[in-house]
Amino acid sequence: MRGRGFTRTLLSVATTLLLPLSIAGIQAPPAAAAFNPTAQDFWVVSPSMGPIKTRVFRAADGNTSRVVYVLDGERAQQDLNGWEINTNVAEVLQSWNINVVMPVGGESSFYADWDQPSSWFGIPPGAGPSAANTGSGATEALGGGPGKSYRYTWETFLTNDLRWAMRDQLGFNPYRNGVFGLSMGGSAALTLAAYHPDQFSYAGSFSGYLNISAPGMREAIRTAMIDAGGYNVDCMAPPWGPNWLRMDPFVFAPTLIANGTRVWVSAGSGAPMPDDLNIPIGAAADRLIRGAPLEALALANSRAFQVRMLTLGAQNVVWDFPADGLHAWTNWQADAYRMIPDLSANIG
User: Fold this and answer.
1) pLDDT of residue 95
2) Is residue 29 helix, strand or coil?
3) Contact predicate 201/261, CB 8 Å
4) 309-318: per-residue pLDDT in tens?
5) Bridge partner residues of 265 (DSSP)
6) How far is CA 302 from CA 71, 100, 289, 326, 336, in A?
7) Is 327 annotated in the active site?
8) C-alpha to C-alpha distances, 233 to 103, 117, 210, 286, 307, nearest whole angstrom
9) What is d(CA 193, CA 201) in angstroms, rounded to the nearest whole number?
10) What percent of the chain has pLDDT over 70?
11) Mean pLDDT along residues 77-104
């Protein structure tokens, strides 16, 4: 498993088989839930989405001034945030005396305010069959559920409903917070910081799609949303309209510079880390086949964003492009470890 020739062969096979599928199936391999009993369930009612759960991890020193929001990926679950399920990043942040806010839910949402509930062909949500646990959200496209029976308003929730509830009930500082996330959550972190600079002084993107108006990206995202819950990207924002362009970090890059937001951008190379290979061969092959082409696309997007920012003379970004890393939790946990010192120095 550790041989270079074997690794190159698997990587080549993965890229050949799945690159044409673009970003379908954005996910890490399944993991057992790592529920942390010391975290707090914090429920806040969104006027449009109803009760939303957030997991809160208190800073080790008890302060309420240093706060970071941690965003999930495309396949966000309804029970726990993927960062809690798959990593110990919350506990590490606590040890740095940072309060951690982990919203739960928002599958395929990009943490945006959608134009309308997700639906297909005008069919009411829940009117069609819904087959769970098939491995593909396409079978759930006509079913009901979050973001289908109501309109996603995640940006409003995070920057208004949740923000002020945490100030009023927990005493959390609502200003100069941090926000970071993986994949869809990475793109969303930059969007939230761009349009809410009083709330977020720091934004981190791990394997984010930061050039979503590039040729082919909308259809790639369409495919990913169908696979991750059966969502319709056209219900999020019409093609090339102002709401779509508003979500594109490549487009709003000047705003991040003008705000003086501290930005961290990371993407792996698409080559596996040692921990990706020191597992049974079948699991390693699956991780490579899923993760290599997805991370290659995220890297291309992140590099395009880098060129855009450098062309604009940006001095507010840390670029982090390690020599390895798949579209997988092994990569994102390592990304977070590298980012935390910089995050700590720029919030609160």
Assistant:
1) 98
2) coil
3) yes
4) 999 999 999 9
5) 205, 319
6) 18, 25, 21, 14, 16
7) yes
8) 21, 10, 16, 27, 27
9) 7
10) 88
11) 97
